[in-house]
Design goal:
By secondary structure, this protein is mainly beta. The protein folds into 2 domains: 31 residues, no CATH class; 93 residues, Immunoglobulin-like (Sandwich). It is 9% helix and 34% strand. The protein has a 4-stranded antiparallel sheet, with no helix packed on it. A 3-stranded antiparallel sheet has the order 3-4-5. It is elongated. The termini are far apart.
């Protein structure tokens, strides 16, 4: 029996070996909070862009990685404690934001400009995994 399967679909014997996938999806879903805010933009059928609002962060405060089909964005910055801040309204706290990537989805670009981190994710299907036509061979000889 598969744990944390609210719909019971993975109890079907058709889904052999899906336990790790379900666990990965559950962990990504459970670990996400609301900070920092983000948008996901579908640019075309094969390309997505994740925009993350990171005001107060610099490029050196951000770490982007992919592990086990999970995009992981981490940020850590320290406010200068010597500053005499009267009001603190810009959140610059430590965070980890994760996104589960589908099959053949790959991060192809990351840009950081004006406090906005933009990560491009594309579906890149390897040649050996793309659909192919199978020719039907026949041993039958044609006679006139």
């Amino acid at each position: 029996m598969v744990m944390n399967d609210p719909w019971g679909i993975f109890n079907d014997p058709f889904f052999i070996g899906w336990n790790d996938t379900l666990s990965r999806l559950n962990s990504v879903y459970a670990n996400n909070n609301t900070y920092p805010p983000y948008d996901i933009v579908k640019q075309d059928e094969e390309t997505y862009r994740v925009d993350v609002a990171l005001a107060g962060f610099g490029e050196d405060n951000i770490n982007i990685s992919v592990d086990n089909k999970t995009l992981i964005i981490k940020g850590d910055t320290s406010t200068n404690k010597d500053e005499n801040i009267v009001h603190k309204g810009i959140a610059t706290r430590k965070f980890t934001r994760t996104f589960s990537l589908g099959e053949f989805m790959e991060v192809t670009n990351a840009e950081f400009e004006n406090g906005l981190l933009s990560i491009t994710i594309e579906k890149i299907v390897p040649e050996e995994k793309q659909p192919k036509q199978i020719k039907i061979n026949t041993n039958k000889q044609l006679t006139d």
